[in-house]
Design brief:
The chain is an alpha+beta fold. It is about 30% helix and about 30% strand. The chain has one domain. Helix 2 (about 65-75) runs parallel beside helix 4 (about 110-120).
């Protein structure tokens, strides 16, 4: 369900670690966390393959702000380990993914973004548009009058 307050639908906050040839066991040993999923991206292009290890701290049923707070709470003691992975060539980031309704804002409180900033790793967004039953050009019509 789309949250009118935040604009997010089915949002998930996750720690994402990626690298070609990534061994999930190595990431889990470095962080002391069990990954939620492991995916191979770009498998059709052998030179561009990257294995991505993902960790979710909370249930999806929680709001995205609470998911980020829970994730940051688990990761703050691991800041040095996150930096070590990054220094070893791993791409390490917090990713917020979910659906958004066309033309709806996806809001995050400044205090939530500050939690991620304390981790010293990038914050990324992976969004998909939730179909609203409107035409793809309705937003333009509303602007042009």
């Amino acid at each position: 369900m789309l949250s009118r307050k935040t604009g997010w639908e089915s949002a998930r906050a996750a720690l994402v670690v990626g690298k070609p040839g990534l061994r999930p066991q190595a990431v889990e040993a470095a962080l002391g966390l069990k990954g939620t999923t492991v995916n191979v991206l770009g498998a059709e292009e052998a030179a561009g393959t990257e294995t991505v290890w993902t960790y979710h701290a909370s249930r999806e049923s929680l709001g995205v702000e609470q998911q980020i707070a829970d994730l940051a709470g688990e990761l703050l003691p691991l800041v040095d380990a996150l930096k070590t992975l990054a220094n070893q060539g791993f791409r390490v980031r917090v990713d917020i993914s979910g659906f958004v309704k066309t033309n709806s804002p996806c809001k995050l409180e400044a205090s939530t973004i500050a939690l991620v900033a304390q981790l010293g790793i990038p914050l990324s967004f992976t969004t998909r548009v939730a179909r609203s039953g409107e035409s793809d050009s309705d937003w333009l019509d509303s602007i042009l009058g």
